[in-house]
Design goal:
Number of strands: 4
Strand order of the largest sheet: 1-4
CATH architecture: 2-Layer Sandwich
Largest sheet: 2 strands, antiparallel
Shape: globular
CATH class: Alpha Beta
Helix content: 10-25%
Radius of gyration: 12 Å
Number of domains: 1
Strand content: 5-15%
């Protein structure tokens, strides 16, 4: 099993989860984080750290967000590893409760 970052992270990119991760499984794009399924050790310490509740075990991803399982695996090949906490995006608070953000994902 692995963990998956879902749509709630788009345009926010809080990195509280990166700080607690014992391995380097997070990758950062311009406005979204993903988890490398080959590096994730399924410890789940990242889940409660996410301020927008964007991280799920792959078996618990909500039905309308299941495509993020493949998207995380795909984007780990494009986005660089993020090992340290960074500030959230400048307008993260404005995007925090917005839904339907997939069209805003930057690669």
């Amino acid at each position: 099993m692995t963990h998956v970052v879902t749509e709630a992270c788009i345009c926010c990119r809080y990195t509280d989860c990166v700080d607690v991760c014992p391995v380097d499984c997070f990758h950062a794009g311009p406005n979204f984080l993903v988890i490398d399924p080959d590096e994730c050790i399924d410890c789940a310490v990242c889940i409660p750290e996410c301020p927008v509740n964007a991280i799920y075990a792959d078996t618990d991803v909500p039905e309308g967000q299941r495509h993020f399982i493949e998207l995380n695996a795909e984007l780990t090949r494009e986005f660089p590893v993020l090992s340290n906490t960074e500030p959230a995006l400048p307008d993260a608070e404005q995007w925090k409760s917005v839904t339907g953000k997939l069209a805003h994902l930057k690669r």
